[in-house]
Amino acid sequence: MTTTANDTHHDGLHGAAEVTRPTRFVRFARHYLLMIVAMYAGMLILDPAYVAVATHAGYADPWTELPVLSALVMAGNMTVPMVLLMLRHHQGFRAILEMALSMFAPTLAATALHLLGALPADQVLTVGHLAMFPAMFLVMLRRYRHYAA
After folding, report:
1. Cβ neighbours of residue 127 under 8 Å, at least 6 residues apart?
2. Average confidence (pLDDT) per 10 residues, the chain, 149 residues
3. Model's pTM, two decimal places?
4. Which candidate, 75, 124, 126, 123, places its Cα nearest to that of 102?
5. CA-based, 20 to 30 A from 32: which of 2, 5, 10, 122?
6. What is the helix (H) or strand (E) element at residue 143, kind and residue range?
7. 76: Cβ–Cβ under 8 A, 6 or more apart, which residues?
């Protein structure tokens, strides 16, 4: 069977309707918000486990006594549910790795600043945590078509 330009054009229109720019933006924003919800779910579920382990190890308040370790644990606690959500949505390995790195990079940068003496230990968690949001947004923005599909 041969197809003409008209047949090909018709088949292309016969499939899914073209996604409009506002719809793409809504999908992108929804994905970003879902990732934030996953981050906070991880904190709410996994942070108490960290505190329990640290308390058992003899630290009354690990957030103040182990600020750098706590910041890294927090990054992990927020990353785990995001990765699980992305796996559930059949995201590719590269997208998952980029998103995980966007969660750890700010905390690692804040830790480096602390080790260089430019940031007090008690600020590592705050700086790392707050910088996660724009880092994640920039990773998503770089692949806008992927996250807006």
Report:
1. 106, 110, 113, 119
2. 42 51 91 94 96 97 95 96 94 94 96 97 95 95 90
3. 0.80
4. 75
5. 122
6. none
7. 46, 104
> Do the Cβ atoms of 67 and 42 come closer than 8 Å?
no
**Token digits of residue 66:** 């182990």
Q: What is the pLDDT of residue 22?
A: 85
* Pick from 70, 134, 77, 74: nearest CA to 102: 134
Provide the terminal-to-terminal Cα distance of the chain, rounded to the nearest Å: 33
- List the structure tokens of 140: 């998503």
Give yes or no for a contact between 55 and 65, defined as CB atoms under 8 angstroms apart: no
Give the pair of three-digit tokens for residue 50.
């960290």
Structure confidence at residue 8 (pLDDT):
40
Predicted pLDDT at 149 = 85
Pair of tokens at residue 24: 């793409």
What distance in Å separates the CA atoms of residue 83 and residue 102, rounded to the nearest whole number?
12
Specify the 3-state DSSP secondary structure of 92: coil
In 3-state terms, what secondary structure has residue 7?
Answer: helix
